[in-house]
Design a protein that fits this description.
Pfam families: ABC_tran. This protein is α/β, with parallel strands linked by helices. It contains 11 helices and 14 strands. The longest helix has 14 residues.
């Protein structure tokens, strides 16, 4: 099972939303990580054949997805970034409706829907209308609808948007559990969403794929470049703009900082083990780190 992306480009006049992206995805979980506006959603829309690329192609097991058509959609599950459902439907009604659109037998669908509602923790509100759902609850309905046809390829665009920490942990568990026979691509700008589940991380910046490696490989490349130290408040404010800052904790006039530097920034600085959050700051800066 292979999803192959070959020189995929999406151009709008002089602007590249995606530029010359080439990679191969096989079974496992992939985290697509990048800041807002990096091209993650555009790439995902191309992968689900909603958007035709300006250049390049996507193939599944050697055949172009645009030619596979319905046969490709039969093995595909997709959660778009913007998902709302139909507000007048209950969660159960909506999922049964989507199941019918996907051609799932009604008897099978009823059992499948109830199982998925339990999986995403919505069994107790399955007869409640979607218009009364919170953003996080609606997102969980979206995750359930993406899983209805037991897809071999699962594309999730910002699936944890609106989820609280316990719901995000639940989702990570679900993805780990179902990933044995699937290609799962999870797009996010939230580092912790993929830190514990991704087999490989794809870093995308300004539409270009700049890295595709296992988390351990990315972390190993940053060994010896992550430092912590304590500064007084005045020195910190004076030097802040010159630091590649990951974190700063203020306490009683002093600041404990975590920074990235390829050389010792100060004689009191101590090297520490890199985390995926450090990788994010190294490539993208700190503005979107969560």
């Amino acid at each position: 099972m292979m999803l192959k992306i070959e020189n995929v480009t999406q151009q709008y006049r002089d602007v590249y939303a995606v530029k010359e992206v080439t990679c191969e995805l096989t079974q496992g979980i992939y985290g697509l990580l990048g800041p807002n506006g990096a091209g993650k959603s555009t790439l995902m829309r191309i992968l689900v054949d909603v958007l035709k690329p300006t250049k390049g192609r996507v193939t599944y097991n050697g055949k172009e997805i645009s030619i596979l058509g319905e046969n490709y959609r039969d093995i595909l599950g997709y959660l778009p970034q913007e998902f709302g459902g139909y507000s007048h439907f209950t969660a159960q009604e909506f999922l049964r409706y989507v199941a019918s659109l996907k051609g799932i037998d009604s008897r099978v669908a009823h059992e499948k829907v109830d199982g998925l509602l339990e999986l995403v923790g919505l069994c107790n509100v399955k007869k409640k209308k979607l218009k009364g759902f919170s953003g996080g609850m609606t997102r969980r309905v979206g995750i359930a609808q993406a899983l209805l046809n037991d897809p071999l390829i699962l594309i999730l665009d910002e699936p944890t948007a609106g989820l609280d920490p316990s719901e995000r942990i639940r989702l990570r568990g679900i993805l780990s559990e179902i990933s044995k026979d699937k290609i799962i691509l999870l797009s996010t700008h939230i580092v912790s969403d993929i830190e514990y589940v991704a087999n490989e991380v794809l870093l995308i910046k300004e539409g270009e794929l700049i890295q595709k490696k296992a988390p351990k490989e990315l972390l190993a490349a940053l060994n010896g470049q992550v430092w912590t130290m304590v500064m007084n408040e005045d020195d910190f404010l004076k030097n802040k703009q010159h630091l590649k800052l990951v974190n700063a904790s203020h306490l009683q006039g002093q600041v404990e900082i975590r920074i990235i530097s390829d050389k010792e920034p100060h004689e009191q600085a101590v090297t520490v083990e890199p985390r995926l959050e450090d990788i994010y700051v190294y490539y993208f800066g700190a503005n979107d780190v969560v």
